[in-house]
């Protein structure tokens, strides 16, 4: 019997080396580690150099995005991503801090989780509060993806026509709505 697979997009980033790996090697190895019978990597963006976010919080990042097909539920996929982060030395010490590996679920099919009201709360949260609080549950699509060139530029590499299930905008639309300086700061390696 064929298993029904869901499509997900995942953002990858790193700004601290892990062991003997360069940032690019860490991302490549993490993608390989993530791949398996229940996670099939369908597409991988180019790798991009991006300024640290928030500005001044540490060294620049290497960012990328992947599209995958999975039989895992959204929460099981997130658990798998956290396990891979841990394997590559990720310590969750501070929100938006430096990290050896960051893996974020951006989308999972066209699901809005846990519901539209909670999604909108987190998507509309003022920037000063975003730094201080984090949701206790998975929010999908990622509530900040439309605001971040370091996410949208790699995602546009692999899924420019993916349509946000709440706003209805494509990745290309969201990217072109950002300030030109933000987009220009994300450069291919």
Automatic annotation (TrEMBL):
The EC number(s) this enzyme carries: 2.7.6.3
Record GO terms (molecular function): 2-amino-4-hydroxy-6-hydroxymethyldihydropteridine diphosphokinase activity; ATP binding; kinase activity
GO biological process entries: folic acid biosynthetic process; tetrahydrofolate biosynthetic process
First-level EC class: transferase
InterPro entries in the record: Hppk, Hppk_sf
Domain of life according to the entry: Bacteria
UniProt keywords, alphabetically: ATP-binding, Folate biosynthesis, Kinase, Nucleotide-binding, Transferase
Involved pathway(s): Cofactor biosynthesis; tetrahydrofolate biosynthesis; 2-amino-4-hydroxy-6-hydroxymethyl-7,8-dihydropteridine diphosphate from 7,8-dihydroneopterin triphosphate: step 4/4
NCBIfam families (alphabetical): folK (TIGR01498)
PANTHER family: 2-AMINO-4-HYDROXY-6-HYDROXYMETHYLDIHYDROPTERIDINE PYROPHOSPHOKINASE
Designated name of the protein: 2-amino-4-hydroxy-6-hydroxymethyldihydropteridine pyrophosphokinase
């Amino acid at each position: 019997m064929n298993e029904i697979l869901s499509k997900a997009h995942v953002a990858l980033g790193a700004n601290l080396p892990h062991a003997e790996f360069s940032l690019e090697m860490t991302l490549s190895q993490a993608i390989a580690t993530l791949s398996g019978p229940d996670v099939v990597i369908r597409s991988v963006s180019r790798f991009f150099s991006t300024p640290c976010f928030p500005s001044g919080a540490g060294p620049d990042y290497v960012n990328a995005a992947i599209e995958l097909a999975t039989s895992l539920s959204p929460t099981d996929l997130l658990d798998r991503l956290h396990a891979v982060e841990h394997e590559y030395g990720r310590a969750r010490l501070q929100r938006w801090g430096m990290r050896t590996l960051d893996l974020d679920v951006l989308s999972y099919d066209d699901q809005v989780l846990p519901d539209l009201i909670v999604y909108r709360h987190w998507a509309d949260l003022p920037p000063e509060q975003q730094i201080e609080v984090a949701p206790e549950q998975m929010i999908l699509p990622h509530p900040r993806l439309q605001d971040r060139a370091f996410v949208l530029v790699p995602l546009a590499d692999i899924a420019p026509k993916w349509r946000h299930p709440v706003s209805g905008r494509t990745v290309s639309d969201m990217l072109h709505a950002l300030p030109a300086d933000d987009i220009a700061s994300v450069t291919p390696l």
